[in-house]
Amino acid sequence: MISILYEDKQKEGANRRETAAGPVTLKDLNLDQVLARITEDWGPEVREIYENLPKDRETQAYRRAIFAELKGQEMLPELLKFLNSLRSWEECRNRAGRAQEEGPGHAWFIREGWCYVSALEDLKAALESRSLISAGLLGLREDLKKMVSAEEYRVFRRELESLWGELQGFRVRLTFEKERFTLEEGKGQGAYGAFLAECFPEHMGSFKSPFLASEELSDLEGEVLRIFQKQHKEFFRKAGELWKKREGYLNEEILCLRTEIAFYASYLSFMQKMQEEGYGFCTPEDTKSRLCVRGLYDLALALNCMEDGREVVPNDALLQEGEGFYVLTGPNQGGKTTFARSLGQLIYFAKLGVDVPARRAAVPYFCELLTHFSVEESSETGRGKLLDELERLKPMLGQEKTGAFVVINELFTTAANYDACIMGKRVLEAFLAKGCRGIYVTHLSELAKAGEGIVSLRAMVDERQLRTYRIERSAAGESAGAVRQAEKYHLTYEQIKERFSCR
Q: Which residues lie below 8 Å from residue 279, measured CB to CB, with a gap of 6+?
C-alpha cells in the first residue's frame, strides 16, 4: 500500500535514522512544548513522525500537496471517523482475544471485523466522493479500491455482513416468575443493558451482557448463553468458521496507514483549534531563494497567551536573493529571541510538509534546520560556557551539506566584546560560505555590519522608549534599555558632563 508520508517507501527507514530532530533543537525553538500539545492525544508513534523531518525536497512537496488537499476538501471528519473505527476495532480485537467463552469471543470477533471493514470502506467512499489531484491521495484511493475488490476480502466481508446482521437482530426476554427463569426469543426490544436496568435496578453492578461485556459472565448469563447457542447452532457454527480466518483478513499496512493519517489529522485538529482563537495558518509557497513571511508568530508563545488572555504581536520577515543572514539587535526582553524562534518554527513546519503559523509565507527549500542557543554554564562538563558553545558549534560548521537554515541566539556572551565580535563574524562567514541562511540574535551591534549578505534587524521601541515587540529592518544602534538605565542612574553623557562641569 502506498505511503502518504513518503513518496518512495524505500527511503523511509533512512529518513528516520538520519533526520530525527535532536532534543536540543526542539528545546531551543520551544518545539518540545508545541509538539507535546499537538500530539498529546495521538500517541508516541505520531510524535515520532513530527520529530523526523523529510530529508529531501520531493518528500516535503509530496506531503504538502496531500495536506493542502485534505484541508481544502475538509476531510478532517472522515479522517477522524476512520481513526475512531480502527480504535473500536482494536478494543474489540483485544476483548475477543481475552474472552473465556467461545460465544462472547465470536461475538466480539464479528464486531471487530465489522469495525475494520467499515473503516476501510468509509475512507474509500470519502476519497471517491472528491476530485483529487495529489499523487498520495490518488494512490491511496486506488489501493483501497483494489483491497476491497479482492476476492478474499469480498468473501470475508459477505460472511461477516451476514453474521453481523444476525447479531444485531438477536433479541431475548428473560422472565423470572415463581422462582423460575423463562427465556423468550424475539420478544425483547431495545438494548440488553436497558432491559436489565429496568428489571433489576438494584443488581445492575453484577450483570454483564454476553455480547458486550468483559470476559467473565455471571452464572445466569452463562446459562442463558448456553441455551442460546443450542437454539442457534448454525450462527455459532458459521461464527466459529469465520473465527478461524481471523488472522488472515487483516492487512498490516492498514495499521501503518492509521499512524500516517493520524499525523495529518492531529495537525489539522490542532490548526483548527488555533484558528478558532484567531491565529492564522497558511500553505507556504515554494520559492527558489526568496524568503517572505507576513504575520509570523511564535506558536509556543501563542499557546501560553491563549491560557492567560495576552495578545501575540506578529511580525514580517524578508530575505531577498543575495541576502543571507539576519543580525538582530535591540533591547533586552524586546522580542528578539521570540522572533528567532518563530522563524525556526516556520522552517520546521514547512519542512514537515504542513501549514505554517503565519498569514502568508513564501519559503525556499532548506536541507536542514540548525540551532544554537546560549545555555547556562554546566558544572557537569567542567569546561565553561564558552568552550561548551564552541563544542556545539563544531559539528554544525563541519557538516558537508550546504543550504541549511541556522538560528543562533546570543553566542559568546562570556567573552569580551572584542573577542565575541571576531568569533561571531567568523561564524557568520563560515555559514554564509556554505550557502546557509538564518538569523543571529546578539547584543553586539558591530555584527550587523559584518559583511555582504548581512541584514540588520532591530527590536523596536516607541517614542517613550517602551518595547513594541515589533522587529523591523533598521541599522543597529544604542539599546533603548541601556539608555533608560543610564538616564535612571544619571549616567548619560550629558548628565556626567554636567556633574564634572560643576566641580
A: 297, 302, 312, 357
Give CA–CA dist 358/9, Å, rounded: 31
Is 110's pLDDT higher than 60?
Answer: yes
Distance of CA 409 to CAs 77, 146, 293, 339, Å?
41, 52, 20, 11
408 sits in which H/E element? strand 405-409
What SS3 string covers 365-399? Answer: CCCCEEEEECCCCCCCCCCCHHHHHHHHHHHHHHC
Given CA atoms 99, 102, 105, 109 in this order, what sign does their dihedral have?
A: positive
* Cα gap 183→99, rounded to integer Å: 24
The per-residue DSSP string of 113-170 comes to HHHHHHHHHHHHHHHHTS----HHHHHHHHHHHHHHHSHHHHHHHHHHHHHHHHHHH-
Here the cell at position 363 is 519559503
pLDDT digit string, tens, across residues 231-289: 788 888 888 888 887 777 888 899 999 999 999 999 999 999 999 999 999 999 999 99
The residue type found at 337 is T
Domains and CATH numbers, the chain: 54-170+232-267 (no CATH), 171-231 (no CATH), 277-476 (3.40.50.300)
AA letter at 228: F
| Three-state DSSP state, 474 | coil
pLDDT value of position 387: 86
CA 28 distance to own-chain centroid: 18
Q: How confident is the model at residue 64 (pLDDT cuts 50, 70, 90)?
A: very high
φ, ψ for residue 416, nearest 5 deg: -65, 150
